[in-house]
Design goal:
single chain; about 240 residues; alpha/beta; TIM Barrel; 8-stranded parallel beta sheet; 8 helices; globular
Amino acid sequence: MFNKTIVSPSILSADFMTLGAEISALEESGADWIHFDVMDGHFVPNLSIGVPVLKQLRAATKLPIDVHLMISNPLEELPWFLDCSPDFVTVHYEALGEKQEIDEALEIVDAIHAAGAKAGVALKPDTPTGVLDESLKLWDMILVMSVFPGFSGQSYIPESAERVREVAEAARIAGLNPLIQVDGGIGPDTAPLVAAFGADVLVAGNAVLKAENYAQAISEIRERADNAHSSKEAC
């Protein structure tokens, strides 16, 4: 059974000169979560925001904060972010040490859970979903990237819906029910494509924060995704 769609606007697309007002507007417009993208200039070719902004954001909103760490050394930097009391923290599978993948994943998940947060793992578009077969049971959320991480405003990669289906099917076979999140090029037209195959958390950047009416944009994304959920279940 599909969960109700969660819309998590990415503040990477926000106006940072008025970030406090942007957060308030998202709350008033019905956002479910706030998505917080961290880029280190190494794991991805860009720099974004970090711990000081997250600390202020935590004090400014009661909405769940969804931290996406696009960094090369998540285990080393994780304590800094956990000190800010996020609700979800997602690390990239590709940033885990290849030889110690499971051990490092266990250490990361244990640290996140000990801080009272949920643990997520992200996959780049060219990483096979099957790499999670061994560690799938560890994660509370799987993030399927529908663009290559590093920049906002990219176009959705059409093959992403099939990758969502693969993750959802693997979880079903294993008797698991992690949240499945999709990030990249998500808007009213692409939301139903991934929702139909099991995505329940949709990260939307420009589709919300560049819209004239945040509430209308969030509502349309959620409604079209929920309709896709219902249609798929009816089949």
